[in-house]
Amino acid sequence: MRYWIFVCLWSLTRGLNQSCLNGEYLMNVVLLQDDVSPWSLNFVQPAVMKAIKFDAEINYSNDVTHNLSATYNGFQTVYYRHKGCSSSPCGGIEILKDLENSGMVGCALLGPSCTYATFQLVDIDVGLKLNIPIISAGSFGLSCDYKANLTRLLPPARKVSNFFIEFWNFSDNIKPLWHKTYIYKKNNNTEDCFWYMNALEVDSGSFASNVNKRVVLRKEEEFSAALKNDRESNLFILCGTPEDIMQLKNGSLDVDAHVAFILIDLYNDKYYLEPSNDAMKNVLVLTMPNNRNYTITTNNTMNDYIAAYHDAVLLFGQVMRQIWRIPVMDVDSVNINYFRNVSFKGIAGDYKLDEHGDRDVVFSVIYTNIHNEYKVLYEFDTSNNKTTLVDFNPSFIWPQQQLPKDQPPADNAGLQVKYAIVISLGFLALLVIATVAFLFYWQNRSYRRKQKRWSHIPVELITPVESSERNMVSLKIDEDAWKDTCQKIRRARYDKKIVILKELKHSDGYFSERQRIALNALLQIDYYNLIKFYGTVKFDHEVLGVFEYGERGSLRYVLNDRISYPEETFMDWEFKISVMYDIAKGMSYLHSSNIEVHGHLKSTNCVTDNRMVVKITGFGFNTFISPDRDLWTAPEHLRKAGISQKGDVYSFAIIAQEIMLRKCTFYTKACSDKAEKLDCVQYPRMLCFFRPDLIFETASEKELEVYLLIKSCWDEDPDKRPDFKKIESTLGKIVSLHNQANESYMGNLIRRLQMYSRNLEHLVEERTALYKAERDRADNLNFMLLPGPVVRSLKETGSVEPELFDEVTIYFSDIVGFTTLCHYSTPMEVVDMLNDIYKNFDSILDHHDVYKVETIGDAYMVVSGLPRRNGDRHVMDICHMALDILSFMGTFELRHLPGLPVWIRIGVHSGPCAAGVVGLKMPRYCLFGDTVNTASRMESTGLPLKIHVSQSTINIIERADCKFEYMKRGETYLKGKGKETTYWLTGVTGQNYNLPTPPTAENFQRLQQDLAEMIKSCLEQRSPSHEKRKTLSAGQRKLRGHSELTDNEQPEYFHLATVDNLSTYL
């Protein structure tokens, strides 16, 4: 293993001398990829991408033409016995070797966070000479100290060790000098706690040489004994969370005022956000300062590791801007000195890196006061190793307002207690055994509790799939059989995937402890040849399991379907062996997992996906269903009910015989009755064991080898049957797949399958093409005219029930001076003008949750909040849409009158309304109520190029805490409503909509003259054919004599009212 690492490192360093600036990516993110580690690539990648985008904005503002780029590479330890960082030494090396082979090493490496993985990249003794900076949020261990090209953005173990050295030697009127301590190191520490405690524990460390005595405790019973018996110190150092303190105190809130726990919990912000409890009153917490610009979440969407990698991008961007300013960028790599003695800002606060590239911080030492509040007692600056008192008058539980001394006071009564203990030793022996057993149980409670918890998938995440959506690949025409199958199979859509729902019979959803443990183990199974289990869901009174869906059905169905899968051209020798090989691989993985045994293996429990890969299902439910008694059951389990791995091997042999002969299950010429077959297997006659037929006489050499394997698998003696590892190896050698372990069949078989599928599917498509086309056209037209729920209701029942909506927002707009524009335009020009405007309006609507009600002439009506209710979002969607439309009108230009501005008025109002379909002919979805009338009044009383908003809409905006900007217009007279306070919507905070400037009374005289000249010029440039056009109405033709423009006379289109109520006359 170590020799292989040396070879990887030597080959990797050969190609790292090229200029990194010439690559496609400047950064490579190399992290552990799982769903557990807080620095997993799954959690870090979105933050890195966000930081790259933010850095690009900085570059743009500084006229830097280059931008950062990154590639993301995750390594997994799922196949190792020990998961996580302990199995990650070679993961980063393998990824860097692949990057080097592809020329994508880049200028910097973000990650790894695991100390074991980072050490292999930065330690010169193992042979790696990596000449690019490595920026890590982690790599805490002492073995990664003082490395030439390593920068650590989270405090390493050396900084924590320096704190304890200085803090132990520090004294004032609150804290005495300390020389002794206990160090409690759990077995299941997190990555940071492991290395922080390791720095304090190791004999060669600085802390060990600076304290007089330290006692390392590794078990909970040792910790409890140190608390109860004669203590050597009153101080206990441990790393973890307040929950660990509660656990060590066995859930008790009682505190010993003579003891002090020093808890290392750097990456937790609850000490600044949440109250404390009584159990923490004798605890000092060492944690990071309160300068985060984010809140740590429990689902790992944001934590200190993610923030550090986000800020690592900002640091690297700052360095690259310095490099890009160099006139000639003739450099092979980024100099590591850029990352030494440097400061920068990030979302985690101000960063300060020392001469070794490690982050300096100001630690906070926090205590719990008598009111159960967390307070900062001391601060420790790692840059100068200085301790500062913050709270000069603390109110804590320790007597005389002083921290306890490290040495317990002498107690002569303790000798008497010792004698009493010796006398009672016989009685306490049983108590000690019970305590040890209890502590062992308590130590593993977290894992046990997790295994014993189970929650159903929320029902709203499961969408049943209609029967019309079935996509089972088969050309076998058998409607009755298909209908029967559809009744048995229930399919749904979950997480954008088609899944199958299977009923868990005899279960009410409240599973027993054994069942919950089995379901949690089943949930962890994820393998290529095993059907994925997603969880359970409770529908009404049914409990259903949610499984991955096999598109082509069960293996038994495929074997029976000789039309879709003919023997001569499709189901040939290679395909049959590949099917058996798929089953063997799946069972080999299953037997080595926590499931250990299938117990119900049969051809109906083997399904095929759309690529003809066979996957096994039906495993993991042995606590729900009793053992089978069928043709696949091993003889020993027919005689005595049960399950075993050797019984699975027997079931595999029966399936293999089905595949090879493509006959019915357990085919034999001598017997066809199922009951008789079971009886012959269970009770053999003399020494002749009853098995299915295998034709050895006519078998070829390669078939004979498979037949012998099948025969050994159904041997009467279970001990003589091979295990699935050997079966997998044998089948792999037969089809020469030992070098292609990730493939299930030969490449030529794939091509043959594709050709065959295309030919057969073409026949089906021909017969259904016309029907689908007509159906799609009708559906698309219906959905363009009416909302989806209304269309479905009309199709199903022929009617739509009217519905009352408590709160919607309605938008009205019309074109100012539309009549005058029509007077100077032909009918076709008017149609083209409206089409140009409304097509762009419609495209804007696609980006918002709104419904277009109708257009009448130049009026445009939109509503949000119906037919699908969306809470308070209807106001936000309408306001954003109105701003987008107004921004578009600022750039719109008429095709037949270029240069002439087009103004619109917009009115918005919120309130209740009713909606329904009116009429039988040409049904339309209409809105009714005073809200519609008020929204129309808001539009008619508005001003050009402004958004007129009512008081009710503003109330919802304030209630939803939206960032819209608006200004008060004052009281406006609304017909039928009286005077009401209205507002102008002007934009959104932080966004630039580039809205057009509305005309005002001050500059209107000059605007009148300029626009008058524009329309005169536009009309003069029109061709003679347009001068004798047909106008829109007879009344307008009478106005032809008044259509000539003069300097003192403008058309109605440009008449702006100058009274207080600048309302409508444009």
Automatic annotation (TrEMBL):
What range(s) does the Guanylate cyclase domain occupy? 809-939
Region: Disordered, residue numbers: 1022-1043
The GO biological-process annotations, alphabetized, read as:
intracellular signal transduction; receptor guanylyl cyclase signaling pathway
Q: Domain of life of the organism in this record?
A: Eukaryota
Q: Which residues form the signal peptide?
A: 1-15
Which family is this sequence assigned to? Belongs to the adenylyl cyclase class-4/guanylyl cyclase family.
Q: Any idea what this protein is called?
A: Guanylate cyclase
